[in-house]
Specification:
261 residues; mainly alpha; Rhomboid-like fold; two-stranded parallel sheet; two-stranded antiparallel ribbon; 55% helix; globular
């Protein structure tokens, strides 16, 4: 394994360790970890304008053949790798911030981590089945995991309001149900209609479904949000200028080539 791959693994481990600290929110830690890993990709790539050529991507991104050869760890490590800065990394990190912050505030760090990582792994695993006849195709990116955050928000808090970006338009307060419908149209339906988009829309869809299913508990249980939520993120760095709103309970109780995801 190349030095760049070891560096990526160390950053992933550091992200997980630091993210579990009591005073740290996981969402900004994940965001920082992804940015640092992309920096490693750029530095280690033979062609800096083509991060996929980095040995870290070649060794840690998921390929369908990894399932047959026992490299299951790539189902996890591929979530921290991205194919380019603007279209892939920047977009994913922006939506990680917009969706992850309010969801983590509402359901807590542990359940948030479960939704994020389970949705990401399940989405990538499904791509392994879709691309079974293309065993060397790279699959990388956090879109499946981030789609899971949208699915969880839609299931638990459809009537809440969150900030959202639609195209070049920033909307500070959008109903979650409307954001969820827009997300499905923009990240699934749009790409599903393009045969050569290069986007693993199947991972987006399956991640969305996994995120919507995972937080649901046994029938009859009803738990309040972990922290007082509002329409905008409420992490400590925002609390100085954002008013705190009353706590609410969830609507439903916790009842090809390289393919960016």
């Amino acid at each position: 394994m190349e030095l760049a791959s070891y560096a990526v693994i160390i950053i992933i481990a550091g992200t997980l360790v630091f993210g579990t600290r009591k005073r740290a929110d996981l969402t900004p830690v994940l965001l920082l970890g992804n940015l640092l890993i992309f920096f490693v990709e750029i530095l280690s790539a033979p062609f800096s304008y083509y991060p996929v050529s980095s040995p870290a991507v070649q060794e840690l991104a998921f390929r369908p053949e990894d399932l047959a050869e026992g490299r299951f760890y790539t189902l996890f490590t591929s979530m921290f790798l991205h194919a380019d800065f603007v279209a892939h990394l920047l977009g994913n990190m922006l939506f990680l911030f917009l969706l992850g912050t309010p969801l983590e505030q509402r359901i807590g760090k542990a359940r948030f981590a479960a939704v994020y990582f389970v949705a990401g792994v399940v989405g990538t695993l499904f791509m392994g089945l879709v691309l079974a006849d293309q065993p060397r195709t790279l699959v990388l990116g956090a879109s499946g995991a981030i789609s899971g955050l949208m699915g969880a928000l839609l299931l638990l808090y459809p009537r809440d309001q969150i900030p959202m970006i639609l195209g070049f338009l920033f909307l500070p307060r959008v109903p979650v149900w409307l954001a969820g419908v827009s997300w499905l149209i923009l990240s699934v339906v749009q790409y599903a209609g393009l045969s050569n988009s290069g986007v693993a829309w199947e991972a987006h869809l399956v991640g969305f479904i996994a995120g919507a299913w995972w937080p649901a508990p046994s029938p009859g249980r009803r738990r309040p949000a972990a922290r007082p939520p509002s329409g905008l993120p409420t992490s400590p760095c925002w609390s100085r200028w954002q008013p705190r709103l009353p706590s609410r309970t969830p609507w439903i109780p916790y009842a090809r080539r390289s393919i960016p995801t």
